[in-house]
Design brief:
alpha/beta, 5-stranded parallel β-sheet, binds the ligand CSC[C@H]1O[C@@H](n2cnc3c(O)ncnc32)[C@H](O)[C@@H]1O, binds zinc ion, EC 3.5.4.28, metal-binding, Amidohydro-rel
Length: 421
């Protein structure tokens, strides 16, 4: 008898959809079978599509609070506006902003997210209470100031020691230097040494805009990826967000060092940063995951939208309709996100974490010739009916069991005042 049995669903297994039953024991997938399985809780999934839940591999969840406040700006102008507003954010704001983000993520089938932001204790509390998985880091920037470098490292490390492994291991706490243009090479070198000593990971923005590449060349005479490689920073414990402006040699470096890349097509297009070379990266065997970035540059946390934009933008970048195939986009949204952060999830396979989304057919999925194409090109997110995270049901019939949604909307609406005055 399994704790949960999902019977006879159309399951995304090994890159294709096949009919199967899934037995969950504790927080893992214990059995994939052709026959009906017995469970304390049973889902009759004959009419459902079952996928491994999504992993949002790069976000700033609480930026929901700044959604829609700085629009139609390129990254540098946008960042100036956002940084001014972020000074107003209190720990309590971050808690409610993150909760709002988590509600949106759960509803589009996201079981886990990787977040780089401020007041991270609140993000950890919110993720823990809501029952989702999170890889979290305090966003550090030394800006060439030695005293600030020490303070930032202290905050980042205190966060890791307080939260790594919390909530039955659902929280993974890592290092988060912001970017090569806000952190000095000396600081980044120290971060890498500390991450290696603690056997933890690093999440950082790299090569997002042409401006960044030119700025780093001006300051250090080389490009961001080459600079990071020269200081010994690039490794398999490093996840870079964006990687939009990379030449062939830089792609080789990332591949050889085992660095993972998080692609955020909506944010990159909205801030007019560019379109990353995802087709080339995937062909080379680089792990490319998918991330929404923050709600102030997206403006939503809907992974169905993100998958569709990921696919369409590549078709235009390479001017070929098969630039990145739909099944590969689905893999980027699931397995690759988990893999980038060293978590055994994102696949419907025995031994993998039981992070599973149970979908039903919405109006957008009629007629359904192929679940893969349906999910990547037609679905809206409303298809996600139930979400299981770490073997627990977090959303049932689109009702989130772990949080009070109405209270979150009330709190957040009241916070608006301080940003417009
Ligand atoms: C210091 S915490 C993280 C920091 O990053 C800012 N941010 C959000 N989105 C982006 C992006 O696309 N590129 C660079 N920086 C970004 C966020 O506002 C926080 O200040
Ligand atoms: Zn970001």
């Amino acid at each position: 008898m399994y704790s949960i049995a999902i019977n006879n669903g159309l399951c995304f297994i090994n890159g294709e959809f096949t009919r199967a039953s899934i037995g969950i024991e504790e927080n893992k997938i214990a059995r994939i079978a052709k026959e009906v399985l017995k469970g304390e809780i049973e889902f009759d999934a004959r009419e459902n599509i079952i996928i491994p839940a999504f992993f949002n591999a790069h976000t700033h969840a609480a930026m929901t609070l700044l959604r829609g406040i700085a629009e139609d700006m390129e990254l540098n102008v946008w960042l100036k506006n956002v940084w001014r507003l972020e000074r107003l954010l209190t720990p309590e704001d971050i808690y409610w902003g993150t909760m709002l983000a988590i509600v949106e993520m759960i509803k589009s089938g996201i079981a886990g997210f990787s977040d780089l932001y401020i007041h991270m204790d609140e993000v950890a509390k919110a993720a823990g209470e809501a029952g989702v998985r999170a890889v979290l880091c305090y966003g550090m920037a030394d800006r060439g100031d030695e005293e600030k470098a020490k303070r930032e490292l202290d905050i980042g490390e205190r966060f890791i020691s307080d939260w790594d492994g919390a909530f039955d291991g659902r929280i993974k706490a890592i290092y988060g230097p912001h970017a090569p243009y806000t952190c000095t090479p000396e600081f980044l070198k120290t971060v890498k040494e500390r991450a290696d000593t603690l056997e933890t990971m690093i999440h950082i923005h790299v090569s997002e805009t042409q401006w960044e590449v030119e700025e780093i060349k001006k300051q250090y005479g080389t490009t961001p990826v080459r600079l990071l490689d020269e200081i010994g920073f690039l490794d398999s414990n490093v996840v870079i967000a964006h990687g939009v402006w990379l030449d062939d040699e830089e792609l080789e470096i990332l591949k050889n060092r085992g660095v993972s890349v998080v692609h955020s097509p909506v944010s990159n297009m909205k801030l007019s940063s560019g379109i990353a070379r995802v087709r080339d990266m995937l062909k080379m065997g680089i792990t490319v995951a998918l991330g929404t970035d923050g709600a102030a540059s997206n403006n939503s946390y809907n992974f169905f939208q993100e998958m569709k934009f990921a696919s369409l933008s590549q078709k235009i970048k390479y001017m070929r309709a098969d630039a990145v195939r739909a099944e590969d986009v689905l893999k980027m949204a699931t397995e690759n996100g988990y893999r980038a952060y060293g978590i055994l999830g994102g696949r419907l396979e025995e031994g993998y974490l039981a992070d599973i989304a149970i979908l039903s057919k919405s109006q957008h999925l009629y007629p359904l010739y192929s679940p893969t194409y349906g999910l990547v090109y037609s679905a809206s997110g409303e298809e996600v009916q139930h979400l299981i995270v770490d073997g627990e049901i977090v959303m049932e019939d689109r009702v989130i069991l772990t949080v009070d949604e109405e209270k979150i909307y009330d709190k957040v609406e009241k916070l608006k005042e301080k940003f417009i005055s």
